[in-house]
Amino acid sequence: MPEDLQQLLSRINDGYLKQAEAEKEALLTAAKTRADAIAAEAGARAEQLLAAANAEAGAIRKRYQEEIKCAARDCVRELRNELNRLLLAAAGMTAAEAMTPAFMAELIRQMADAAPQGADAEVHILANPRSVEALRTLIPGTIRAQIKAGQFKGGLQISLDDSGEYFDFSDEAVCNFLREHLGSELNQYLGTGL
């Protein structure tokens, strides 16, 4: 009987061992299947995150490029404004310096010589009070009596008749002429497409 019992126990043990071995294999297979599913899911999620990160990085890069272009346009605009301001100041100083009483007197002489001759011809010259006295001493004859003090800082205006139209050589007019001419040159140099 002990042998029968031993055999019975062996069979029971073998049966349980086989069953345990089968359960172990089933658990290992299920665990491997689940691990493969988790790895696949993690891989897919990683690809999604990577794609989203790449898309966001591209959007940020594009936004920064646009901001850099905008900043560059703003810098060029500020540079153009500053250069125009400096140009205006330089043209104003140059115009004021160029319109000396001697230069104005020569200009008046040349215009008076070129004006139509006749009894009705009048010359009206407007200049600032500081220049008027210098012009009176530099210009001989009847033109001297026609010089009047105007309301501007420098330069002069000349009218050869009573029409009210003047040749404007005031420092402001000369400065505006220089600014417009040099300003268009400056804009061509800087490029107006920005």
Name the poorly predicted regions. none
Write down the overall geometry: rod-shaped
How many beta-strand runs? Answer: 4
H/E element string?
HHEHHEEEH
Helix content: over 70%
Whole-angstrom Rg: 49 Å
The structure class reads: alpha+beta
First-to-last CA distance:
108 Å
Assembly annotation = single chain
As laid out across the biggest beta sheet, the strand order is: 2-1-3-4
Please describe the biggest sheet, giving its number of strands, its sense, and whether it closes into a barrel: 4 strands, mixed
Portion of residues in beta strands equals 5-15%
Number of helices, counting only DSSP H or I runs of 4 residues or more: 5
Mean pLDDT, nearest integer? 76
Summarize this entry quickly.
It is built from five helices and four strands; from the N terminus they run ααβααβββα. The chain has 194 residues and is of the alpha+beta class.
Describe the fold and architecture.
By secondary structure, this protein is an alpha+beta fold. It is 75% helix and 8% strand. The chain is built from five helices and four strands; from the N terminus they run ααβααβββα. It has helices at residues 2-98, 101-114, 129-138, 143-146, 171-190; strands spanning 124-127, 147-149, 155-159, 167-170. The protein has a four-stranded mixed beta sheet. A hairpin with a 7-residue loop joins β3 (155-159) and β4 (167-170). The mean pLDDT is 76.
What descriptive keywords fit this protein?
single chain; 194 residues; alpha+beta; four-stranded mixed β-sheet; 4 strands; rod-shaped
